[in-house]
Amino acid sequence: MAAIRGRVPSGARSGPYRGLRAAGARPIMNATAMENGAVRIMTWNIHGGVGPDRRRNLQRIVDLARRQTPDILALQEVDSRRRAVDSEDAFTFLTGALGAHSAESKLIAAPDGEYGHVVISRWPLSGTVFHDISVSGREPRAAIETCVATPAGPLHVVAAHLGLSIRERRWQARLLASVARSSPARTVLLGDFNDWLWKSSVQGILAELLPVRTHHKTWPACRPVFALDRIYCRPAATLGRNWTDPFARTASDHLPIIADLHLTGARDARMTHASDLPGP
C-alpha cells in the first residue's frame, strides 16, 4: 500500500499508523451480522455533531451509531473546535465511545481544537496510511487507507471526504482509484464524495474499478435529494443489504449509509441491493 507522494495536510500523519485503543473504549458489537457471516460498515458525515437545532451534541451521534451496530465506522467532519471549555475533544470522545481501534486524520489544527475524519473499528487495523489528496488553494483533504483484520479475513478500507469543486473531485477520484487498486484484498471505499453527477464525475471514474455502490439519498438530511455519501465495493458480490437511517436528521445535516458486507464466498450469490428502508 504505497502512499501518494505530496504535501501532508496540517494535522495529518503520513506513513504506517496503528489504531490505538482509547481509554474506557466500548467496542462496537454486531453479533447478529456476524452470526450471518456479514461485516457491518457505516459512513456518516456528522457535521461536527451539530443538528438542525444548531446544538453540538456528540452523544446523539454515539447513540445513533450504536443503534446501527457497525463493526467498522467512518465519520467525516469530526470537529473539536469552538467546543465548550469543559467538554471533551471530539476525536477522543467518539473513538472512546464507539470502538477499540481507530485511525484519525486531523486536517485542520486550531488553538481551540482540530477538524478531520476518522475510521473506527471493532478489529485491529494495520498498514494504515494517510494519503494527501489536497488541491492547492482548497480545503486540505486526506484519504485514510487501512487493512481491517476481520474474522473473515483482511478487508481493505479507504475512507475519504472529497472537495467541493468538480475539477477537485475528479482529480481526487483518480487518486482514490489508485489507492483502491493497490490491494488484492476485498476493498471498500466509503465516505462523503460531495458528488451527484455521472458523466466524467467521481462515479464515472470509480465505476470500472468498484462495480457496485450504494444509491441512497443522504443530503440534506431533512429532505434528502442528493446521494453524496456512498459505499463502493470490490468484488461486486461483497455488497449486501444497505440502508440509511432517517432518524439521523436530528443529529446532522447528512444521513448515514449502513451496509452488510459478505466476505465469505458461500453467501456471495445472495447479495443484492436493498431499498431505502430503515435499518434493523
Quickly describe the structure:
With 280 residues, the protein is α+β, with helices and mostly antiparallel strands. The protein has five helices and twelve strands. It has helices at 31-35, 58-68, 90-98, 166-181, 202-207; strands spanning 38-45, 72-79, 101-110, 113-121, 125-132, 142-150, 153-161, 186-192, 212-213, 229-234, 239-244, 257-262.
Describe this structure in words.
With 280 residues, the protein is of the alpha+beta class. Helices cover 17% and strands 31% of the residues. The protein is built from 5 helices and 12 strands. Strand 3 (101-110) and strand 4 (113-121) form a beta hairpin. Helix 2 packs parallel to helix 3 (90-98). The longest helix has 16 residues, at 166-181. It is globular and about 40 Å long.
Could you list some keywords that capture this structure?
single chain, 280 residues, alpha+beta, 6-stranded mixed sheet, 5 helices, 31% strand, disordered N terminus, disordered C terminus
- The succession of helices and strands, N to C, reads HEHEHEEEEEHEHEEEE
Average pLDDT works out at: 84
Strand arrangement across the biggest beta sheet: 3-4-2-1-12-11
Biggest beta sheet summary: 6 strands, mixed
**Fraction in helix:** 10-25%
Oligomer: single chain
State the low-pLDDT regions, or none: 1-27, 266-280
Provide the structure class.
alpha+beta
Number of strands: 12
Number of helices: 5
Task: Please report which band the strand proportion falls in: under 5%, 5-15%, 15-25%, 25-35%, 35-45% or over 45%.
Answer: 25-35%
Distance from N terminus to C terminus (CA atoms, Å) equals 35 Å
Bulk shape: globular
How many whole angstroms does the radius of gyration measure?
Answer: 17 Å
